[in-house]
Amino acid sequence: MVNQASQPFGMGDPAEKEKVKAILSTVCDPEIPVLSVEDLGVIRGIEVSGNQVSIQLTPTYSGCPAMDTISDDIKSALKSAGYEPKIEMVLSPAWSTDWISQDGRKKMEAYGIAPPLEPLPDKLALLHDQKVVKCTRCGSKNTRLISQFGSTACKALFQCDDCHEPFDYFKCLK
Ligand SMILES: [Zn+2]
Q1: DSSP 8-state secondary structure symbol assigned to residue 91
Q2: For 51-92, what is each residue's pLDDT tens digit?
Q3: Protein residues within 5 Å, CB atom, of ion ligand 1
């Protein structure tokens, strides 16, 4: 018996789908190379039929140039594994930083980018201007915003007032 609830990624042979997911886990965000497209949460659906693979992809920041790269990288990774890939862009519901996996958040922090804050603290931070972005080096919450734009438009630059380490913060997007 097939349990639909255990198949969140739509139709198709589950074993084939696992293979495709394994390939997708090797495709990384060009801006944050430690994050795979799975960690980012941009894969909305996978359909496998023979060697035909259809991937539903939701872009992160609209106009983020990384998205074209990600789409091309997914295609070439699947092609080199012998698949005929097709990418379908799904614009609704819009991606938000809440979709980044817990694993992904840990990887980001280890990489030196403060992950986006959970929904509630971030809203409180905006309302009350609280310094709740943790330093990626020492974990201190005594940090401040240096620039709205870090190394890319998706990130802001923060600096820690305790260890003086400057670091990127991946901005929340709702
Ligand atoms: Zn620090």
Answers
A1: -
A2: 999 999 998 866 666 778 899 999 999 999 999 999 999 988
A3: 135, 137-138, 140, 160, 162-163, 165
Domains within the chain, CATH numbers bracketed: 4-95 (3.30.300.130), 98-170 (no CATH)
Prediction pTM value: 0.71
DSSP 117-173: PPHHHHHHHHHHT---PPPTTT--S-EEEEES--SSTTEEEEEETTT--EEEEE---
| Residue 54 CA to ligand 1 centre (angstroms) | 44
The single-letter code of the amino acid at 114 is A
| 110 CA → ligand 1 middle, Å | 14
Checking DSSP bridges between strand 113-114 and strand 166-170, what pairing results, if any?
parallel
Q: pLDDT grade, residue 104 (50/70/90)?
A: very high
